[in-house]
Every structure is written in C-alpha cells, then in structure tokens.
C-alpha cells in the first residue's frame, strides 16, 4: 500500500504542477481559471495523502520519494505542454534526486 500511495502522490504532484502551468498560460483571470483551481485542488489532495503516508513511513524516506516529483514534473511538462528539456535541467534534476538520496542514507 505504501509504495502505491507514494507513486500516486508523486504523479499527482506532477499533474498539479502541469495544471497550474497550463492555467498560468491562459489569458483569463488567473484565480477563476479551471486549470488553476484544479491544480490547487490537486495539491490539497496531495497534502492530505502525504500526511497519511507519513504515518507509516519515516520522514527521511518520504523526502526521497517526494524528490522524484521533480523529474516526473519535467517529463509531464515535456509530454503534455511540449516544453523542451535542456541538459542543464536534466543535470539539475539528477543533482536534486541524488542529493536527497545521499543526504538521507
């Protein structure tokens, strides 16, 4: 259950980020935009699920799992928003994930 919830939280975080980005790109009122509202609603769900996950998982492992939301968000932005991924972005993402893993060993 813990691993599935972890994966779901990472994916939901990336989806929320992409929804906010899509909403920010529209030329409508920012707060009344359906993408922005969906993005923030997604983050509320992520917060509640994260609290549930932290009950059964030590914080040091939780931070490692959450660090995978960065590459997932970059991947989703590339696929859904057609954003280009630079070598700098990939390197920075790798540094963040490896840093979280090494710091929490």
TrEMBL record:
Transmembrane segments: 36-54, 61-79, 85-103
UniProt cross-references to InterPro entries, sorted A to Z: EmrE-like
Keyword annotations of the record: Membrane, Transmembrane, Transmembrane helix
Source taxon at top rank: Bacteria
Listed name of the protein: Undecaprenyl phosphate-alpha-L-ara4N flippase subunit ArnE
Organism from which the protein derives: Aquicella lusitana
